[in-house]
Amino acid sequence: DRRREAPGAGSPIQAIIKDVGEIYSRLLDHRPVIQGEIRYFVKEFEEKRGLRELRVLENLKNTVFETNEHVLPKCEQAMHDNLNETFKRLQAANDMIHRLQEKECEVRKLQADKVMAREEKCIAHWEEFMKEQQNKRAEVDEEHRKAMERLKEQYSEMEKELAKYVSF
């Protein structure tokens, strides 16, 4: 039996090795199948999607060109016009605000002048009132002094009269 097992062209080990190789390639070696699937996928992608992708890219190119050549200049012009108009309106509003501030300043100055005039008038009235009070006080003091003198004279006369009666 050893002769049969010895390596050779028709030996059973060679057949087993060959069978194992075939089983391995069928069960575990997927390269031929995967390569076929890859070729099929690439073919499908190039045929079906490739043209669609080219159309999409062409449409995008046309859209970008249209935007750059026509839409963008229109937008820039519209924006420039609107910004100029907005700037003019803001300038007019700013001028109106400055005029309002000037008027308000004038009104405040007039009010301050009126208040100052009223204060000066009040101060003048107060000074006049105080002068009148001093004059009245002086008059009252003078009347009091005169009344005191009359009373003194009257009492001195009464004392003289009394002195006449006390000597009895």
Automatic annotation (TrEMBL):
<comment type="similarity">
    <text>Belongs to the BLOC1S5 family.</text>
</comment>
<dbReference type="InterPro" id="IPR017243">
    <property type="entry name" value="Bloc1s5"/>
</dbReference>
<dbReference type="Pfam" id="PF14942">
    <property type="entry name" value="Muted"/>
</dbReference>
<dbReference type="GO" id="GO:0030133">
    <property type="term" value="C:transport vesicle"/>
</dbReference>
<protein>
    <recommendedName>
        <fullName>Biogenesis of lysosome-related organelles complex 1 subunit 5</fullName>
    </recommendedName>
</protein>
<dbReference type="GO" id="GO:0031083">
    <property type="term" value="C:BLOC-1 complex"/>
</dbReference>
<feature type="coiled-coil region">
    <location>
        <begin position="83"/>
        <end position="168"/>
    </location>
</feature>
<keyword id="KW-0175">Coiled coil</keyword>
